[in-house]
């Protein structure tokens, strides 16, 4: 139980930085949708470029975050030595990536169909290289159980990015109107989308200074045998990481190519991406849980078999995922104002996107059977299967049904690999998950959601009050059924 309390504490701290940070970051969504009209497709450009950078980020980190945790937690390992080798590998790979991309920036921009804006691509190349390298010091902070510093750096980066966006997208246009000569030496009013990338670049560079203590105090000595083992372990993680991120971003990458009119594709992509942001609570909770759960599992594995603990962690993740789902759907009347009204036509996908996020979180929980048994090849198999399903369904259905098909494709892909991971995992590394309890929670949440959807209440305040009553019922059931027992045991 002490282990679960530690996991809960770290999840709360990581969650605070993730939830507060992402909430602050998502405040940019109403800004972007307000200053970038849906019909312009500008937000589609932002979503498209960031989809590519998400893929490259996984490629450059090479699965070394998980590799670092695995080898640093071995009984005969020197964690600093493992950390130094992870830094050398990811740093060298990132530097090579920047040099090659900048050397061929114009052909690369043309290939991505941004021939008029190689500057967009160049900025994001540097950003993704910096972010990839910084993933290893962030992992080291997690290993050292320093969630406060981890959270502080994350929040500083996000707040700084917000301030810069506000400066470039709101303050500068105002100053340019009243006194253009003041800022005309650096500001261009037609460079709207570009300043989003400029803000990101500045903050990624500034963030490096916070890692100076984590980048000194040990020897940067390349250990070839260790590096070979780490690469061998991490390579399958890279493969399923690449395919996994494709599961999340492939629709945004290929979306403009699925329409005869690329501009129409960018417009639809902008609407889909903006409305998907309303599902941020689920993504934030999953990410916070992941930050705490990965070092928790590998650390517990050193102590012996803790399968019962993993089963309980899965149960509580699932319970609070359902609570997050209900909270978002029940307060949609408020959350819709995160985006501009001309994007509201896409709000119907929010419930579907959140369903995909829940499945993604369950799959992440299940994935530790192949990480703990060093059979990471299974992760690659599952990710490839999931990506193939998502890609095929997008290509087949998006031209006919639009972004709704993209959302359902994600549910289908994650649903299939979650099922496969559970079935095979029970043979390779059996864990007795409390499926009966989880099913009861699922049915209860589904009944409450259906009641909210089917009972028509015209007055928005009465509707919010009714939905609040429903969510209090669910929270009360959680408290009575499970949390009170945990509280009593901890005391």
TrEMBL record:
Origin: domain of life: Bacteria
Membrane-spanning regions, if any?
Answer: 12-29, 49-71, 83-108, 120-143, 155-176, 191-212, 233-250, 270-293, 313-332, 344-366, 378-397, 403-424, 431-451, 457-479
Describe its membrane topology. Answer: Multi-pass membrane protein
Q: Which InterPro entries match?
A: Poly_Biosynth_Transport
**Primary location class:** membrane
Q: Where does it live in the cell?
A: Cell membrane
For this protein, the record's Pfam families field holds: Polysacc_synt_3
Keyword RNA-binding among UniProt keywords: no
Keyword annotations of the record = Cell membrane, Membrane, Transmembrane, Transmembrane helix
The answer on whether this UniProt entry bears the keyword Magnesium reads no
Q: Name one GO cellular component term.
A: plasma membrane
Protein name as it appears in the record:
Polysaccharide biosynthesis protein
């Amino acid at each position: 139980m002490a282990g679960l309390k530690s996991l809960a504490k770290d999840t709360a701290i990581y969650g605070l930085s993730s939830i507060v940070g992402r909430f602050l970051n998502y405040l940019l969504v109403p800004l972007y949708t307000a200053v970038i009209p849906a019909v312009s497709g500008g937000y589609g450009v932002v979503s498209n470029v960031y989809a590519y950078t998400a893929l490259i980020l996984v490629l450059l980190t090479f699965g070394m975050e998980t590799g670092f945790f695995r080898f640093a937690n071995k009984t005969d390992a020197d964690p600093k030595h493992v950390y130094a080798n992870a830094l050398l590998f990811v740093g060298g790979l990132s530097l090579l990536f920047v040099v090659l991309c900048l050397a061929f920036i114009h052909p690369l921009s043309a290939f991505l169909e941004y021939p008029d804006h190689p500057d967009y691509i160049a900025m994001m190349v540097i950003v993704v290289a910096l972010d990839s390298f910084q993933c290893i010091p962030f992992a080291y902070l997690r290993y050292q159980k320093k969630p406060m510093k981890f959270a502080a750096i994350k929040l500083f980066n996000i707040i700084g990015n917000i301030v810069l966006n506000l400066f470039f997208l709101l303050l500068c246009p105002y100053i340019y109107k009243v006194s253009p000569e003041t800022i005309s030496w650096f500001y261009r009013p037609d460079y709207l989308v570009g300043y989003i990338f400029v803000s990101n670049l500045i903050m990624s560079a500034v963030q490096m200074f916070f890692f100076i203590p984590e980048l000194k105090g040990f020897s940067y000595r390349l250990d070839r045998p260790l590096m070979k083992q780490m690469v061998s372990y991490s390579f399958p993680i890279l493969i399923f990481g690449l395919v996994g991120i494709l599961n999340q971003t492939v629709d945004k990458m290929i979306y403009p190519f699925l329409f005869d009119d690329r501009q129409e594709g960018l417009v639809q992509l902008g609407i889909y991406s903006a409305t998907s942001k309303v599902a941020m609570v689920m993504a934030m909770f999953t990410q916070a849980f992941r930050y705490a759960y990965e070092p928790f599992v590998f650390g517990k594995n050193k102590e012996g078999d803790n399968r019962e603990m993993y089963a309980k962690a899965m149960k509580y993740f699932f319970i609070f995922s359902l609570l997050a789902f209900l909270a978002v759907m029940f307060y949609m009347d408020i959350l819709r104002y995160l985006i501009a009204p001309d994007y509201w036509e896409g709000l119907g996908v929010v419930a579907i996107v959140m369903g995909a996020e829940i499945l993604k979180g369950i799959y992440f929980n299940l994935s530790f059977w192949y990480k703990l048994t060093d059979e990471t090849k299974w992760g690659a198999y599952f990710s490839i299967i999931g990506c193939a399903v998502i890609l095929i369904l997008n290509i087949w259905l998006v031209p006919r049904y639009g972004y709704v098909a993209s959302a359902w494709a994600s549910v289908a892909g994650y649903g299939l690999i979650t099922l496969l991971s559970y079935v095979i995992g029970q043979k390779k590394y059996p864990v007795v998950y409390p499926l009966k309890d989880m099913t009861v929670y699922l049915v209860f949440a589904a009944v409450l959601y259906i009641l909210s959807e089917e009972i028509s209440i015209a007055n928005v305040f009465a509707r919010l009050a009714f939905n609040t009553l429903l969510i209090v019922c669910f929270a009360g059931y959680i408290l009575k059924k499970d949390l009170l027992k945990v509280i009593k045991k901890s005391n």
